[in-house]
Amino acid sequence: MSDGFVEKFARVLDRVAEIIASIGKLSCWLLIPIILSVLLSILGGVFRVTQFLDWEGSIPLFGSGLTLNSVLELQWYLFGVLLMLTGSFALHSDRHVRVDVVSSRFSPRFALIVEILGDLFFLLPLCVILIDRSWPLLEMAYRTGEQSNEDGLTHRWLIKMFVPIGFTLLASLGVTRILRNLLTLMGAPAPKSPAGDNHGS
After folding, report:
1. pLDDT, tens digit only, all 201 positions of the chain
2. According to DSSP H, which parts of the chain are helical?
3. 3-state DSSP assignment of residue 200
């Protein structure tokens, strides 16, 4: 395998990783509706308002109106979606939990090998298991029309679908990281860290 091909493939993998991580980065904007829903639920509690809006027909997730309970549930659901989608961004930008005290004692090459093995034997199996386990719950929620029993949100499958989506993104980034680290071991330039410094090779 020529050095030119290795470097080009490495650049492609870097771009793919950036695209996957950008989905998680964009989802950080969900913090704004989370904060607004918290404020709205506080106001509803203070002024004893249980029904904010109602309308004819049914809107996915909200049903026929916006109630205090639906706003409270929205906070939990949006936080869950945020958690599912930002995992890939955290992993890509090295903001996930790491044992740096231990890894800092390794040589850069050995640290890459440990990272590859960690992604291959821990990250990917975990993602596969959670994707597999979440599909039946998603299908059941869709088939039964699962919704709140407390005058809250409807169409819970719309929220539950973010579990397999989130772990699919995380698994995709894991595969990309494994391939990219293998190319680094083969001599490709190391990808830039979030701070702009290069990892060792």
Report:
1. 567 888 999 999 999 999 999 999 999 999 999 999 999 999 999 999 999 999 999 999 999 999 999 999 999 999 999 999 999 999 999 876 665 656 677 888 998 998 999 999 999 999 999 999 999 999 999 999 999 988 899 999 999 999 999 999 999 999 999 999 999 999 899 887 654 444 443
2. 3-26, 31-46, 68-92, 100-103, 108-118, 124-144, 157-160, 162-185
3. coil
Q: Give, in order, the Cα–Cα distances in Å from 140 to each of 89, 148, 160.
A: 29, 15, 10
CA distance 6 to 189: 9
Packing angle, helices 162-185 and 124-144, rounded to 10? 160
Q: Is 83 exposed, middle or buried (0-12, 13-18, 19+ CB in 10 A)?
A: middle
Find residue 192's DSSP bridge partners: 198
40 CB-side CA count, 13 A? 20
